[in-house]
Automatic annotation (TrEMBL):
One of its GO terms (biological process) is thiamine diphosphate biosynthetic process. CDD domains: TMP_TenI. It holds the Pfam family TMP-TENI. This is Thiamine-phosphate synthase.
């Protein structure tokens, strides 16, 4: 078994500018590896495979196929919730929420090189992130979404700014992004609130042209980061 000391974790570098989450429920029946590559071609910097309904074998097969499709492109692949799938498919890490396996247990199982992300829903959870062996936090949900059945009430831009401020104060070296309902109309406001990037499902993977949608979002993020800067 891999062993790791979670309390002494040195954060892995992670580029949060455009984080695409690939979910078969939001793919319009199109092949996941092709969608993954199309998104990477458009400038996605981090990719997650999220599958709330897939059986384990399908998930491992899909994760392997996605990994093969984007191999050599420098874009890490994370698996939502499922450490076993991440290990079997040799993905780069996992994303866990507050009700999933703890970051400490995930770190112990995956080792120091894995990228581990954690959902932060409020200021208390941002504060509690201090000392967690994670590499980034993702704050949600900012706006309403149809992509998550058990989504919490949206916190809006003011809520986002408050959670980011708490993270900056209590966990200054933690990179943070934001999720839920983010698209071309509001991405700039998310960055202006202090986020280092955006995490997106439908604005990328429900688009007719996934590469074009990714490119437009990436341009908005880059321009907004240049204008507002990351506060960290
Ligand atoms: C980047 C990113 N942020 C948040 C989530 C949500 O995680 P969680 O709260 O565990 O909910 P599920 O996605 O597991 O339904 C995420 N997956 N990715
Ligand atoms: C996976 C996920 N987590 C959320 C949270 O609030 O924690 S919202 C969400 C889905 C985001 O999809 P879209 O970009 O289509 O709104
Ligand atoms: Mg989860």
């Amino acid at each position: 078994m891999p062993t790791s000391s979670p309390s002494r974790h040195i954060r892995r570098p992670v580029d949060l500018r455009l984080y695409a989450i690939l979910d078969p429920e939001r793919a319009r029946g199109r092949p996941l590896p092709e969608l993954a590559l199309a998104a990477v071609d458009g400038g996605v910097t981090l990719l997650q495979y999220r599958d709330k309904y897939g059986d384990t074998r399908r998930m491992v097969d899909n994760a392997r196929a996605i990994r093969a499709a984007i191999a050599g492109r420098g874009v890490p692949l994370l698996i939502n919730d499922r450490l076993d799938v991440a290990l079997a498919a040799e993905a780069d890490g996992v994303h866990v929420g507050q009700d999933d396996m703890t970051p400490e247990d995930a770190r112990r199982l995956l080792g120091p090189e894995a990228i581990i992300g954690l959902t932060l829903n409020n200021e208390q959870e941002a504060s509690n992130a201090a000392g967690e062996p994670i590499d980034y936090g993702c704050i949600g949900g900012v706006f309403a979404t149809s992509s998550k059945v058990d989504a919490k009430p949206p916190i809006g831009l003011e809520g986002l700014a408050a959670v980011i401020d708490t993270a900056r104060k209590d966990v200054p070296d933690l990179p943070v992004s934001a999720i839920s309902g983010i698209d071309e109309t509001n991405a700039a406001s998310v960055i202006a609130s202090g986020s280092e990037g955006i995490a997106v499902i439908s604005a990328i993977f429900l688009a007719d042209d996934v590469t074009d949608a990714s490119r437009r979002l990436r341009n908005i993020v880059d321009a907004s980061l240049a204008a507002y800067g990351a506060k960290r």
